[in-house]
């Protein structure tokens, strides 16, 4: 129990920390140094990795040294796609059909592929340069590539 001290945290882990007092949380869209990552890790935090985290060779070197079980793969929809100019792009194996439309419409992203008449209506496309949830696969591919493991090992190693 809380012992009547009025702080609202009875030590059961529901107050933002775990049983040993470690802070819980995710550092979103991490793109800093290994030194800073290690400080966050020492606090018990997880490191969120997305396309913005994989832009430079320095970013890749940092991610390579982070433990898989402390990473969270993100897309940061609709931002932070992995662009061809990014250092991590060479590891991307999966592509998704895109259209240049600036916003979501019924014709984009529904994934059905064909109307009731059986004709392809353009469904199933992502908007160009907009990150979608499916793009998390590309983040996993980059992490796998820089760590020299396969994507299954990355997915199995990520705590979730």
In short:
This protein has 160 residues and is of the alpha/beta class.
Which key terms come to mind for this protein?
globular, disordered N terminus
Query: What's the tally of helices?
Result: 4
Order of helices and strands: EHEHEEEHH
Number of strands: 5
Radius of gyration equals 20 Å
Percent strand equals 5-15%
The class by helix and strand makeup works out as: alpha/beta
Outline type: globular
The parts where pLDDT drops under 50 for at least 5 residues are 1-15, 110-122
Average pLDDT, rounded to a whole number, is 81
Order of strands in the sheet with the most strands?
1-2-3
Give the fraction of residues assigned to helices. 10-25%
Q: What does the largest sheet look like? A: 3 strands, parallel
End-to-end gap: 29 Å
Secondary structure elements and pairings:
Elements: E1 26-27, H1 34-42, E2 46-49, H2 57-65, E3 71-73, E4 98-99, E5 126-127, H3 136-147, H4 151-157
Question: How would you portray this structure in words?
Answer:
It contains four helices and five strands. The protein has 160 residues and is an alpha/beta fold. Helix 1 links the parallel strand 1 and strand 2. The longest helix has 12 residues. It is globular, with a radius of gyration of 20 Å. The N terminus is likely disordered.
């Amino acid at each position: 129990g809380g012992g009547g001290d009025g702080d609202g945290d009875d030590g059961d882990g529901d107050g933002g920390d775990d049983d040993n007092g470690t802070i819980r949380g995710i550092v979103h869209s991490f793109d800093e140094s290994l030194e800073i990552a290690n400080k966050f890790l020492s606090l018990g935090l997880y490191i969120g990795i997305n396309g913005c985290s994989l832009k430079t060779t320095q970013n890749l070197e940092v991610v390579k040294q982070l433990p898989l079980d402390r990473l969270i793969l993100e897309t940061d929809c609709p931002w932070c796609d992995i662009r061809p100019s990014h250092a991590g792009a060479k590891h991307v194996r999966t592509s998704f059909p895109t259209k240049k439309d600036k916003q979501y419409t019924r014709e984009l992203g529904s994934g059905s592929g064909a109307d009731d008449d059986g004709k392809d209506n353009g469904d199933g496309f992502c908007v160009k340069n907009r990150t979608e949830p499916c793009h998390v696969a590309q983040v996993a591919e980059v992490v796998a590539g820089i760590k020299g493991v396969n994507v299954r090992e990355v997915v199995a190693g990520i705590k979730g």
